[in-house]
Amino acid sequence: MRCRLAAMALVSQVACGPSEVQFQARYEENFCAALVACGSLNTCDDATTSGTIAATDNTPDCDFDAGQARACLDATWECDRAQNPLIPADCGTVYPCAGST
To answer: ∠14-73-53 over CA atoms, to 5°?
Structure first.
C-alpha cells in the first residue's frame, strides 16, 4: 500500500507541472526558440533578462504555480510586427501574488 501511495504522489507531482527550476530553464529555451522563429534581431544572449519570468521583486506573497507553469510552457508563442516574441498570456500567472487582480 505504501508503494502505491508513493507512486501516486510521484505521478501527481509530474502531472501538475514542472519545478520552479525546471520551469525557468524550459521557459528560457522556449523564449530563445521564439526569438529565432520570429526572425528577431535580438539573440538569446541579448534578451535573456527580458525573457525571464520571476516573482515580482521577490515578494513573499508571490507563489509559483506549477499548473500554470505547465500551461505557459505548452502555450504557442506569437510574434509582433517588429519580429519579437510576444509572451503567451498563460505565462502571466505563473507567479500569482496575493491581492493581485
So the answer is: 110
What pTM does this model have? 0.71
Place of cell 529565432: 36
Cα torsion 81, 36, 44, 32: sign = positive
Mode of pairing for the β-strands spanning 78-79 and 85-86: antiparallel
Which stretches of the chain are DSSP H helices?
Answer: 2-16, 20-38, 44-51, 66-74
Q: Averaged in consecutive runs of 10 residues, what is the pLDDT profile of the chain (101 residues)? A: 41 68 93 93 72 57 90 96 93 78 48
The sign of the CA dihedral 93, 80, 48, 33 is: positive
